[in-house]
Specification:
Protein name: Nuclease SbcCD subunit D
Shape: globular
Distance between the termini: 82 Å
Order of helices and strands: EEEHEHEHHEEEHEHEEEEEEHEHEHHH
Largest sheet: 6 strands, mixed
GO molecular function: 3'-5' exonuclease activity; endonuclease activity
GO biological process, one term: DNA replication
Number of strands: 17
CATH class of the largest domain: Alpha Beta
Family: Belongs to the SbcD family.
Strand content: 15-25%
Subunit structure: Heterodimer of SbcC and SbcD.
CATH superfamily of the largest domain: Metallo-dependent phosphatases
CATH topology of the largest domain: Purple Acid Phosphatase, chain A, domain 2
C-alpha cells in the first residue's frame, strides 16, 4: 500500500498579519493532484490542521472542501487525521458521526473508561487493502495533554515516561489484533529528542516548557513507520529512516527561508520501500534584504532597486528587511515603507541589529546601591545595554528636561 504523510498545515495562520488563504488553497489543490498522480492509498495528517483552536468558518470550509475533493477524486482513499496542540480535539472530532460511513478517521481525544483506563481501541485505526482486508493497524495518537497519558509515580520526567508508556501500551494492544501479513504504524504530534527546530518552534517550545521531549526509543522497533508532526522542519529522528517529521507545507517564519517543504511518500507491505520526499511548490516566496544587516542608507538603496508592483497580487513575496543601527532611529518603519512604496513586495518584518556588545558581564547591584541610583543613571545603563554606546548628549539633555518636568509636577 502507498502512504503519504503530512502535518502542520496551520490553516488560518496569519504571516506577520498577512492572510494566507491563497497559499493554503494552492497547497491543498496540489495535494489533491499529488494523491492522484502518486496513486496514494492512505493519507496521514499528523496534527495542527488548524492554526487556532477556534478556526474561522472559512478555514473549516477549506479543510472539509479538501476532504470532499480528495475522496471524490479517489473513493478508495483512506484518511487518518490526528489533533495537534493548535487544534481543539473535541472540535476536530465533532463531524465523526458524519464521517463514520466514509474512509475518513479523525482522532482528537484520548478516551478513558470509568476506572480511568485508556480506550486503546479508539486510538487504533484499521487500514484495508483493495479486498477490504485489514493490511495495517495505525496507532493514531493525537497531541497528548496532561491527563491523557499514564501517570508514572516517582519518576524524573512524568511527561516523557508517561507518553512512552502510552505508546508501549498502545503497541501491545495493537499486537493482540495483528495477524500474519499485517503491520503496525504510528502517528504522533510531539517533540522528540535532538529534533532540529525553527525559530517559531523554539518560541512555542519556550511557551510550552522545555522538558517535553520523547526519545526515538519510545516507538517499538516493530512499528514500521512513525508519522510525526509538531516540528516544522522535515527530518528523520534518531538516525531512523522510518521515524520522520514531514514538516509544514508552508514556511512559518523567515528562519525557514531555505527549507524544502515536502510530504513523505512510501510503500508499505510487510516492510517499507520506495520512501521518498516530494517537494511542495512555493506559491508565495520569502525574501530577505539584505542577507546580513547593513546600515540604513545602504538598505534603502537596495530597496529602491526592487521591481515595481504588478497585477498578480496574490504571489507578491513577503519581505524581511535587515538593518544595522548604532542607536535609535526615529520613524524607522516609515522610512522603510516609503522606500518600498509601489514595489513588488509585502513588508512583513524589520529585523534590527546593533553592534556586538563589548561590555563586561552585568554587574550586580546591592539593594543599598539600587536605592541610591538616580533615574538618569538607570537610563544610561539601559541605553548602553541596548545600543552598546553611551547616551548621546542631545538625548541626555532631553531626558534631563523630562525628568525635571516630572519632578515639578510631582511637587
Amino acid at each position: 500500500m502507498k502512504i503519504l504523510h503530512t502535518a502542520d498545515w496551520h490553516i488560518g495562520q496569519l504571516f506577520h498579519e498577512y492572510d494566507r488563504t491563497y497559499e493554503h488553497q494552492q497547497f491543498l489543490n496540489w495535494l489533491v493532484d499529488t494523491l492522484q498522480t502518486e496513486q496514494i492509498d492512505v493519507l496521514l495528517i499528523s496534527g495542527d490542521v488548524f492554526d487556532i483552536s477556534n478556526p474561522s468558518a472559512s478555514s473549516i470550509k477549506m479543510f472539509y472542501s479538501f476532504l470532499n475533493k480528495a475522496t471524490r477524486a479517489n473513493p478508495d482513499l483512506q484518511i487518518i487525521i490526528t489533533a495537534g496542540n493548535h487544534d481543539s480535539a473535541s472540535r476536530l472530532e465533532a463531524p465523526k458521526p458524519l464521517l463514520e460511513s466514509s474512509n475518513v478517521h479523525i482522532i482528537g481525544l484520548v478516551e478513558k473508561d470509568a476506572e480511568g483506563n485508556i480506550d486503546y481501541q479508539k486510538l487504533l485505526v484499521p487500514i484495508h487493502d483493495d479486498s477490504k482486508n485489514v493490511k495495517i493497524w495505525c496507532l493514531a495518537i493525537p497531541f497528548l495533554r496532561m491527563g491523557d497519558y499514564p501517570t508514572i509515580l516517582n519518576c524524573a520526567n512524568p511527561y516523557t515516561e508517561g507518553v512512552t508508556a502510552l505508546y508501549k501500551d498502545a503497541f501491545e494492544y495493537a499486537s493482540l489484533k495483528k495477524q500474519d501479513g499485517q503491520t503496525i504504524i504510528a502517528m504522533g504530534h510531539l517533540h522528540t529528542h535532538h529534533a532540529e527546530v525553527s525559530d517559531l518552534d523554539k518560541t512555542e517550545r519556550l511557551i510550552m516548557g522545555g522538558v517535553e521531549c520523547i526519545p526515538a526509543t519510545a516507538f517499538h522497533q516493530d512499528i514500521k513507520y512513525v508519522a510525526l508532526g509538531h516540528i516544522h522542519k522535515a527530518q528523520r529522528i534518531g538516525g531512523k529512516e522510518h521515524i520522520r517529521y514531514s514538516g509544514s507545507p508552508l514556511p512559518m517564519s523567515f528562519s525557514e527561508l531555505n527549507y524544502k517543504h515536502q510530504v513523505i511518500v512510501f510503500e508499505l507491505d510487510e516492510e517499507i520501500s520506495e520512501l521518498k520526499s516530494i517537494e511542495i511548490p512555493l506559491s508565495v516566496p520569502l525574501q530577505r534584504i539584505p542577507q546580513t544587516p547593513l546600515p540604513l542608507h545602504e538598505v534603502i538603496g537596495l530597496l529602491d532597486n526592487l521591481p515595481i508592483m504588478d497585477n498578480n497580487l496574490q504571489t507578491v513575496p513577503f519581505l524581511e528587511v535587515r538593518i544595522l543601527l548604532d542607536g535609535p532611529e526615529p520613524a524607522l518603519r516609515h522610512k522603510v515603507e516609503m522606500a518600498l512604496a509601489g514595489k513588488r513586495v509585502r513588508l512583513a518584518k524589520i529585523d534590527v541589529k546593533y553592534p556586538a556588545s563589548t561590555l563586561q558581564a552585568p554587574e550586580f547591584i546591592t539593594p543599598d546601591e539600587l536605592s541610591e541610583l538616580q533615574p538618569i543613571d538607570v537610563f544610561g545603563k539601559v541605553y548602553q545595554s541596548r545600543y552598546n554606546i553611551d547616551v548621546p548628549n542631545d538625548i541626555l539633555q532631553l531626558f534631563k528636561q523630562v525628568a525635571e518636568e516630572v519632578n515639578q509636577t510631582a511637587e
